[in-house]
Amino acid sequence: MSILEIKDLYVSYGAIRALHGISFHVDEGEIVTLIGANGAGKSTTLRTISGLLRPDRGEIFYDGEEITRLGGDVIVRRGVIQVPEGRRIFAPLTVRENLEMGAFTRTDKNEVQESLEWVFELFPRLEERLEQTGGTLSGGEQQMLAVARALMAKPRLLLMDEPSMGLAPILVEEIFEVIEEINEQGVTILLVEQNAQMAFSIAHRGYVLETGSVQLEGPAAELARNPQVREAYLGGG
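Now predict its structure.
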């Protein structure tokens, strides 16, 4: 069953149209990736699902209910959580405070403690740096913190925007292993990622966006073999 369904979505920034009637779906339990060049509309899509941008027209359904016009705060409380591009952690706050901010919508202290233990299992380094301020962490640790903070909100659907950006290759592999682990724990993931090879290696399905339109879609392994996709996003061959 689809946990997320996007129907004929148009989004503009002033006079510039960023999305031209895109439609796609994400089924419960999947990792679905959106691939495309800079400016293709990937981040715009995530920001619109999150309620940060208003579409010109089209519909967004989450768990069978339309959420197109709901505010971001309401969407978060329903379990749709975004890990933003560029991490956007709270640099002056400690790791602990950043994680507490992630759990701000939750009232059950025992459940919050369980989530905290889970993120420490996924990211042991964050537990070691609990009282350090976010701004003093390395780039990789900040990305871990951004993901962990999102998990503290107990997502059912996790929107991830360029989680590998700016990371060393060894850290990219680490982050992608964690994304798989999060998915295995029952969280559905919509992944926007420049590193198409890594994205296809963990995703179930994918969509290729070009200038605000869906050009290709299919199982991730199939897209990875597609000559067009290989040429544009996987270095040819």
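The first strand starts at residue 2 and ends at 13.
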